[in-house]
Amino acid sequence: MMRFTRWMLAAMVLLPLFGCAEFKDAFREAFGQGSSTDDESFGVEYKPKYVIGVYQVVKFPRGGELEKPISTFDGKVVCVNSNQFFSSKNIEEVKLLPRSDRPDTYDLRVKLDRRGLILWSMLSLEYRDAGMALLVDGVLYITTFQPKPLENEDAAWVVLPGPFDPVTSAGILKYARKNYDHFNPSASNWF
User: Fold this and answer.
1) Which residues contact 70 (CB under 8 A, 6 or more apart)?
2) Can you name the residues that pair with 95 across neighbouring β-strands?
3) For residue 36, what pLDDT band results from cuts at 50, 70 and 90?
4) pLDDT at 179
5) pTM (two decimals)
6) Count of Cβ atoms closer than 10 Å to residue 183 Cβ
7) 165: helix, coil or strand?
8) Rounded distance between C-alpha atoms, residue 160 and residue 153, angstroms
């Protein structure tokens, strides 16, 4: 009986630390740290918004599984390689750069994580003369995008040329960090 009691006590101590959300809530309430229901996102799965994706434009589609058609705003169809080369998963932070030719639009200056810098370097060398498609939430935004090489080995910021309208720019700016955290979850959130 004593052995069973020790196991139960150990389980009661460890489950709030490593178990599911209900045990974590009970632990927080018992020790005066409040519950996670205070968090506005409790119980609601975050859905990424204003997600950026960069794809290779396929000039001569062969209709394979690696190609997918994307509709443009004017009703045309552009075929892209379905393998995404670069995305919001690699963007830690965004800053808006007003354009001189159209003051009501912006370019995006984005801070990349380590993997993003490697991907960007590969993109800028391999596809510098090819057209890339920039999609926002799966909708084709720019089709003539050409990635520019990094300025130096310590560079963490690159520019995604627009023009991005004020609403889309503000959305990308607002959700960049949330999207990055969603696509790159912390190990502390696994339980």
Assistant:
1) 55, 77, 78, 79, 80, 133, 135, 138, 139, 140
2) 109
3) very low
4) 92
5) 0.69
6) 14
7) coil
8) 19
